[in-house]
Amino acid sequence: MEKNKIEVPLLKTPKEISDLLIEISGVDIFKKSRVRNIVEHRAFFCYLLNEKFELGPSAISAFIRTQPKLKTYDHATVIHALKKFKIYKTYREEYFNILEGYFEISPDADYKELPKLERLLNQYKEIKLKYNNASKKIKRYEEKLNDFNELKRKIKSGFTKNEILYRDLNEAQMKIYDERAALILKSFNWQKPKNEYEIINCEA
Hints:
Blueprint: E1 10-11, H1 14-25, H2 36-51, H3 57-64, H4 75-91, H5 93-100, E2 104-105, H6 109-112, H7 114-156, H8 161-166, H9 171-190
């Protein structure tokens, strides 16, 4: 790989960077493979977009996923690749330093806005998540308030607490309740004092 034999163009888009990288290295970085050489060059590509293009993980992921074979390359994978590249470079430092020298990068005006748009998108997602969580809490509070108002209405009706709770039971629960209540009511009858007492004959 001799730099003086290749004209170094000014790169303005991620596609131009990926095309040049594939041409120079002979490595298809968009091939779905865990082969070490491919993984390292793909991580190097993520590094270029992050360091030279100032793109964040989500924006890098969005570009890579335009490739048919890497539809699942999400932002977490990009973050992992960026971390791993620091390790890859330690034992191939000379190679990657020479390779990086081929990439004269000046982002197109549209791409310069991507980091700002990415931050706005992340802020939007965060606000949306907070809004959804708040909406769920409000809904739960409204349900509790409705239950409280219903209980308040029942109390004003003159029913006892058990009578109020009884009206919220389903048919099967009411049947069990009625059976047990019937036994309790019978026990009250057993406890009533008798008007006539049994006469016991003690004569021998």
